[in-house]
Design a protein that fits this description.
Radius of gyration: 17 Å
Shape: globular
Bound molecules: iron/sulfur cluster
CATH class: Alpha Beta
Strand content: 15-25%
Mean pLDDT: 96
Helix content: 40-55%
Number of domains: 1
Distance between the termini: 21 Å
């Protein structure tokens, strides 16, 4: 990467990591996805029940396979060969997992996590229930402030996720959010985690690569 671009990104990551620490989160910086995956597997006990939220980032890191191979029980609902009742049960199991693993739609430079969900299971598990939460995010998730976070969700994360899910929404038709009233709407719950939730062990792994939506 161009030296000046790298300098700019490094400074941005540094500022964000510092703010996250000040807000009570444990933080890890991983320069690439391979290092990130190694760090995350090392944080998770081999006998832990691991809940995995709907996250492209987690899957891009190959963590489902790595954890299953090691013998962890994994609760993840992105499976095609299960009924909707089974999928709901897995979502409930995630809420009481030992470790919940997910990404964040946006992370502000002042150390806040911003997320938008349709069902709400992912954002609920990030706040209370699992004993430990690990959030892994590529540097593309870093934004200046809360306005930037909402803008990122509306213009990038939500339309791309709606497209991935095959939703019949205006954002899939046009590529932009119109704050729709569609029955397929995936934006029902918005959370801002300003500081580490008081009863949860919480680690954020920032990766020096683009990951997820
Ligand atoms: S509110 Fe509707 S149009 Fe906007 S991103 Fe969400 S699903 Fe798409």
């Amino acid at each position: 990467m161009d030296e000046v671009k790298q300098w700019y990104l490094d400074k941005r990551i540094e500022r964000t990591l510092q703010s996250l620490k000040e807000n009570g989160f444990e933080t890890i910086y991983a320069p690439n996805r391979a290092e990130a995956a190694k760090e995350i597997v090392a944080l998770i006990p081999s006998d832990a029940l691991v809940g995995i939220g709907g996250s492209i980032t987690v899957r891009e890191l190959g963590l489902l396979d790595a954890l299953s191979r090691r013998g962890n029980r994994v609760a993840q609902h992105w499976q095609s060969a299960i009924s909707s009742e089974e999928r709901m049960e897995i979502r409930r199991t995630q809420l009481i997992s030992d470790v919940f693993l997910t990404s964040s739609n946006a992370i502000t430079e002042s150390g806040q996590l911003v997320n938008v969900d349709g069902t709400g299971n992912r954002v609920a598990a990030m706040i209370f229930g699992p004993k430990k939460v690990i959030v892994v995010a590529g540097m593309n998730k870093i934004v200046r402030d809360l306005d930037g976070a909402i803008e990122r969700v509306n213009s990038i994360a939500a339309p791309m996720n709606a497209m991935r899910l095959g939703c019949q929404t205006p954002c899939v038709a046009n590529g932009v959010c119109t704050d729709c009233e569609s029955s397929d709407r995936i934006c029902s719950v918005t959370t801002i985690i300003n500081r580490r939730p008081g009863r949860t062990d919480f680690t954020i792994v920032l990766v020096g690569e683009e990951l997820g939506y």
